[in-house]
Structure formats: structure tokens, C-alpha cells
Design brief:
With 385 residues, this protein is α/β, with parallel strands linked by helices. The protein contains 13 helices and eight strands.
């Protein structure tokens, strides 16, 4: 018998698929608990050796060149790469077995919200050039017959990728964290319209929409299959959301249209040229007094030890995230100010493991408590005058 669906659109796993997925989880857990500590020690020792010999802390290229000659590092890179490949294979196998059923569930979803795709949409080069996260076809590839395959694969793989630490199979912890941040920093905000840029399957957007039940809520992304799935997922969860295929650099919405615009782990998947444009677009579409929130990976290059840099280097070089190091090195708060935002703050927001409560403060201590326990957040307000 298939395992029960966590929500109506989630692909159901049969016995063999569940075993395949559990193997991926076990492999990722082994890497995190057994291999990572060994490579951390090796990296820190290697960095100390270079510093003693050179009289200065090693650069990332120096450290990488030394580690690449060592078998444990080679094994670690190979294991992480293999786990990622197996994750997408496991998710794809599960989805493809029931693809017709999933497409039918999408077609017969309740008439809530809307979805608009564009056959002439041009995917930004920084996304079209690679399979992000090693996802076959990335976010944007859409079969000739349409459907929801890419969204279903993304949803199934998401909880495997984070070992369930981002809100289980609902994978909505980042959305809850955005909501907690808004409640704390901007308690007066009562948005009439909300936009998420780079919404993928709407998991974060559903969480934010539930926190502001009176708002009209929109999400954009580059992938038509993602958006069809996101719409069906939200509708079957009873949440009316409006999805549109568009770039965060040029959304197509009017000036002064939204009260809250946010991204959730999106900026590091763009480019050095795109981020300032995205900041400017956020400013343009926000009403005076509106709020922007950018939630990012809980890592800043200027605070990182040698192992954290090597771990981030893996994402850039081997996990098809070429702008990872660029994003975690960029002055995101400065870019927000240059776009025109006021009341800008940057720091670490505690992860919210469930719907946050209004009036509860202290969740933005600006202290990094580690991955999946903190997120780096930059937020600000468009001046009222």
C-alpha cells in the first residue's frame, strides 16, 4: 500500500519507493553525522598548517587545492554529490509512476486563486545555464504536454534534501520564519497585497498567507510546471493564491502595488547583476510604507571558519549553485539601502517551527544558532514620503 499523502498533491510513495527514499535520507544523515565532523577536523588542521607556513590565513583556493589531494575530502565530495543525484532519482521515480494521476489532481483542483503561465517567457541566463541543485531540468523545463511534473519532483525531494528539518514534508518553516520576522519587526503591518518572488511550489507562500488571511496573495517563479503544481497544492489546501510566471527582476506588476514583498532562499540562486535589480523591483512594486524581507541561508562569508567556507564551496562548485559564495559575500543590507529602503536591518532570525504568534519578541537576536535553527534575514521599509 502507498504511504499516505502529507497533503493532497504530494506524490504518494509505494514500498519500494519509500525504501529508496529512506536510503537517501540514511546516506545524507551519515554524511552529516559521520563524515562532516571528520572533514571539519581535516579542514581546520589543514588551514592551521597553511597559516603556520605562510604566516597568514589561507585563501579558499589555497585551502581547496591542499584538500583536493587528500582522499577523505575526495570521498566526502563524492558522497555528497552521489546523495544529491540519488535524491532526484528517487523523487523522479515516484512522480513518474503517478504522473497522470497528479496531472489530473491539478486539473480538478478547487477553483481557488489563479495561475498564469507564458509560453514566450525567457528564463534568466543564470538559471537556464545549469540544473540548479542538480535537479534534472531545473525549475523551468516544461514538457510539451505541460503538467505538474517539475513541481511534484521538487516537492517530493525538498524534505529529503533537508532531512525534514524545514517543516517536514510541508517544508514551510522558511515561510513561518518570514512571518515571525514581520510580526516582530513590523507589528503594525496589515498587508492588503503580498508577493513572493521565487515561490517555487508555494510552500512558504501558503504559510505567510495563513498569517495574513485577509490579504490578496501572489507568487511568481520561472517554471510553469512549478506554478501549476503550486496552484493545485494551495487550492487543495484551501488557500486562494495567485501565481504568475515571471522573473523577480521584472515582475510585470504595477508600481506601488504590494504591502509586503519577500523572498525565501532565492537571492543565492541569482547573480551579482540580478540582485540589485531585484532590490530595485521590490522597491518599485511596494507601496510607500510597504515592507521587504529577504530570507537567506544562515551563512556569511566574513564570519565563516575554514570548514564553513569549504562547505559553501561545495555548493558553488559541485551542487550547481554558482552564485552561492557571491550571495553570502554580498552586502545585502547595503544593496537594500541603495535601492531606497529605510529602517534596514540585517541579522539572524530564529527559525519558526510552526505558526508564529503576534506580539512574541526576541526571535531576531541577530545571533547565528546554526543551520535550520537560524536564517539570515535582511528587511526594510519603503519610506512613506
Amino acid at each position: 500500500m502507498p504511504a499516505p499523502r502529507i497533503h493532497p498533491m504530494m506524490p504518494a510513495s509505494n514500498h519500494d519507493e519509500l525504501a529508496e527514499q529512506q536510503f537517501v535520507v540514511a546516506l545524507k544523515t551519515y554524511i552529516a553525522t559521520e563524515m562532516d565532523p571528520l572533514i571539519r577536523n581535516l579542514t581546520l588542521a589543514t588551514a592551521a598548517e597553511i597559516e603556520q607556513a605562510e604566516g597568514a590565513k589561507p585563501s579558499l583556493p589555497q585551502l581547496r587545492r591542499r584538500l583536493e589531494r587528500q582522499q577523505p575530502y575526495q570521498n566526502w565530495i563524492s558522497a555528497m554529490r552521489s546523495a544529491q543525484e540519488l535524491m532526484w532519482q528517487a523523487a523522479g521515480d515516484c512522480v513518474d509512476r503517478q504522473r497522470e494521476e497528479l496531472d489530473e489532481l491539478a486539473r480538478t483542483a478547487p477553483p481557488l486563486g489563479s495561475v498564469a503561465t507564458d509560453s514566450d517567457f525567457v528564463v534568466p541566463r543564470y538559471l537556464a545555464a545549469t540544473d540548479t541543485h542538480m535537479m534534472p531540468g531545473s525549475y523551468h523545463v516544461d514538457p510539451a504536454d505541460g503538467g505538474v511534473r517539475q513541481g511534484a519532483v521538487f516537492d517530493k525531494a525538498a524534505s529529503l534534501y533537508s532531512l525534514g528539518r524545514q517543516g517536514g514534508q510541508m517544508n514551510d518553516m522558511r515561510g513561518q520564519t518570514v512571518l515571525a520576522h514581520v510580526y516582530e519587526r513590523f507589528p503594525d503591518l496589515a498587508p492588503e497585497r503580498i508577493l513572493e518572488m521565487g515561490c517555487t511550489i508555494g510552500n512558504s507562500l501558503v504559510a505567510v498567507a495563513k498569517g495574513f488571511p485577509g490579504a490578496e496573495v501572489h507568487g511568481i517563479d520561472v517554471g510553469a510546471g512549478l506554478l501549476r503544481y503550486a496552484h493545485a497544492r494551495a487550492a487543495r489546501l484551501g488557500v486562494p493564491l495567485h501565481f504568475k510566471q515571471a522573473s523577480a527582476e521584472e515582475t510585470g506588476y504595477p508600481n506601488d502595488h504590494f504591502d509586503l514583498v519577500f523572498t525565501s532562499a532565492v537571492l543565492h540562486e541569482t547573480s551579482a547583476k540580478a540582485v540589485p535589480r531585484i532590490m530595485a523591483e521590490c522597491f518599485r512594486v511596494l507601496r510607500p510604507g510597504g515592507v521587504v524581507v529577504h530570507l537567506e541561508v544562515p551563512f556569511r562569508a566574513d564570519e565563516a571558519d575554514a570548514f564553513a567556507l569549504i562547505r559553501a564551496d561545495y555548493e558553488t562548485r559541485y551542487n550547481n549553485e554558482p552564485f552561492w559564495m557571491g550571495a553570502v559575500s554580498a552586502d545585502l543590507a547595503g544593496l537594500a539601502r541603495r535601492a531606497g529602503f529605510a529602517e534596514v536591518a540585517a541579522g539572524y532570525q530564529d527559525a519558526a517551527f510552526g505558526p508564529p504568534e503576534r506580539g512574541v519578541r526576541g526571535g531576531f537576536p541577530q545571533v547565528n544558532k546554526g543551520g535550520y535553527r537560524s536564517w539570515y534575514v535582511v528587511s526594510g521599509r519603503k519610506p512613506r514620503q
